[in-house]
Amino acid sequence: MTEPLLVFDDVHLSFGAVKAVNGVSFDVGRNELFAVIGPNGAGKTSIFNVLSGVYRPQQGSVRLGGDELLRKSPPTIARLGMARTFQNIELFTNLTVLDNLMLGRHQHINYTALEAFVWVGRARREEIRHRRLVEEIVDFLELEQWRKMPVGLLPYGVQKRVELGRALAMEPKILLLDEPVAGMNLEETEDMARYILDIRDELDLSLIMVEHDMGLVMDIADRVMVLDFGTRIAIGTPAEVQRDPAVLHAYLGGELTDGEVAG
After folding, report:
1. Which positions ≥6 away from 185 have C-beta within 8 Å?
2. Domain boundary at 171, 191, 220, which?
3. What is the mean pLDDT of each run of 10 residues along the chain (263 residues)?
4. How far is it, in rounded angstroms, from Cα 189 to Cα 199?
5. Tally of domains within the chain
6. Residue finishing a domain among 106, 136, 171
7. What is the C-alpha separation between 60 and 63, in angstroms, rounded?
């Protein structure tokens, strides 16, 4: 067995008397799609904020490929290979699709402002290389027809795809997806599910997904972790989680069906 890519070990995060994350542990393997679910207030977003360096827990360890993350800044964590999308779209609406995707390359830029201004040598070579990679993402996510349009004019589902592409432009080792299909209709959800699976299978990336759409989670996740009041109550395959009595109790005593949405 290979070593996991990410290890989240006995993490405790409290805000006063409120325990947002209470001794949670899990790991994520290479090329694994790992889902985190739970009722509202269960601690899902807090875990994402710990992973990306926004929150600093009082206890525990988070390691990515052997690097300890807990005392590192968000930019440093991003450079080590962590990228994230957001539940609420965070794009520059007045910029084109290509410009938004190019912003994902910022941590890979090695030329100076002066070199960029005169547009010679290293700046020119790197810009061409970055643009070539971004064009590959445009093809991968089927964004060709919108590539030069301001993202503020695009349909919601396409904007979510652009945000996904910007995260991919960072060349991450692991991708955090915060409710990737929130607000989407059925067709958009099916398209996003296909892109997520392609990212895992064709780009060989690991993914952690927080999602309320139980149909999507149970269909595409390799493993699922269930949280309730900041505590892990179950972890396993989708089938194992759906049969777990603690999970059924957390979801108001009802069986998790494919179409159910966790509140």
Report:
1. 157
2. 171
3. 90 94 96 93 93 95 94 94 89 94 82 66 75 94 96 94 95 95 92 96 95 92 95 95 85 52 39
4. 15
5. 2
6. 171
7. 10
Same domain, 141 and 130: yes
Structure tokens given for 85: 């999308």
* The amino acid at 6: L
| Domain co-membership, 176 together with 260 | yes
pTM for the full predicted model = 0.87
Which pair of structure tokens corresponds to residue 179? 């409710």
Three-state secondary structure string covering the chain: CCCCCEEEEEEEEEECCEEEEEEEEEEECCCCEEEEECCCCCCHHHHHHHHCCCCCCCEEEEEECCEECCCCCHHHHHHHCEEECCCCCCCCCCCEHHHHHHHCCHHHCCCCHHHHHHCCHHHHHHHHHHHHHHHHHHHHCCCHHHCCCEHHHCCHHHHHHHHHHHHHHCCCCEEEEECCCCCCCHHHHHHHHHHHHHHHHHCCCEEEEECCEHHHHHHHCCEEEEEECCEEEEEECHHHHHHCHHHHHHCCCCCCCCCCECC
Domain interval for residue 67: 1-81+172-263
Chain-centre distance of CA 13, in angstroms?
20
In a domain, residue 86? The reply is: no
